[in-house]
Specification:
The chain has 250 residues and is mainly alpha-helical. It is built from 5 helices and 3 strands.
């Protein structure tokens, strides 16, 4: 096989390797965004529940202050009743007031009891949401850690491939018509990604499967015997790939 064709085939192989590497990593940015969004949403949910929990604690504290005030009033009225009773005064209005205060006390104690029960439920929700947040955060951190390693490996592999490509292009430039082939390779690769060189198999282009005319096929067969570059570059009329014929593998 011609030397220039061999080098072009090697370039195609390296390009294909890069494409496959990029294919493996193409969904990673989207996955990272999704996980970051999940972490953010879980954190916001936790903040809401914690805020709700603190508000309920504040409400209980406020109710407890009111209950303490009622108890103080009850103690004051009871003391006043004892004093007035000892002096023979009418204490009916004080007793009515004491009755109303005790009713208010009962109501307030029921409110506090209900608030404590609600607070316990809210605490359970907070713990559940916190567990979800920690689980999602751990999943995200593990994913980001693994991806960081894989991205480093990806960059290393791409760099290695690019260096090898540069070596192949350098070798291509050293042979006859190599510079023109380098330019042609770049043009075709940019316009038709997915491979620049195509083998002729069963009298057809192996990339687009277009039938090759007998005249072109004969010329390819003649060119295939040239060990060196300098032969004519023949391109597929359909997909523009550079065609080659391998007599040893038909």
């Amino acid at each position: 096989m011609r030397k220039d064709i061999e080098l072009l085939i090697e370039l195609d192989r390296l390009e294909d390797k890069i494409i496959r590497l990029k294919e493996i990593f193409k969904d990673i940015p989207e996955k990272k965004d999704v996980l970051q969004q999940k972490v953010q949403e879980a954190e916001e949910d936790l903040e809401v529940e914690l805020e709700n929990y603190e508000e309920q604690k504040s409400e209980i504290s406020y109710l407890q202050d009111e209950l303490n005030e009622i108890n103080e009033e009850i103690a004051t009225v009871q003391k006043q009743i004892l004093q007035d009773t000892s002096k023979g005064k009418n204490v009916k209005s004080l007793e009515d007031n004491l009755f109303q205060l005790k009713r208010s006390k009962n109501v307030k104690e029921e409110e506090i009891s209900a608030s404590h029960s609600l607070l316990k439920d809210t605490e359970d929700v907070v713990n559940e949401v916190r567990d979800d947040f920690n689980s999602i955060k751990k999943e995200a951190e593990q994913f980001f850690s693994e991806i960081k390693e894989r991205e480093g490996d990806f960059d290393s592999q791409v760099k290695e491939i690019e260096e090898f490509k540069a070596h192949i292009l350098s070798k291509l430039g050293e042979i006859e018509n190599g510079k023109e082939l380098k330019t042609l390779y770049g043009q075709i690769s940019e316009a038709f990604p997915g491979g620049v060189v195509a083998k002729v198999e069963y009298d057809s282009c192996s990339r687009c499967f277009m039938q090759i005319t007998p005249q072109v096929l004969n010329e390819l067969q003649r060119e295939s015997g040239d060990e060196y570059s300098g032969g004519r570059v023949i391109r597929c009329a359909s997909c523009s790939c550079i065609l080659y014929y391998d007599a040893n593998n038909q």
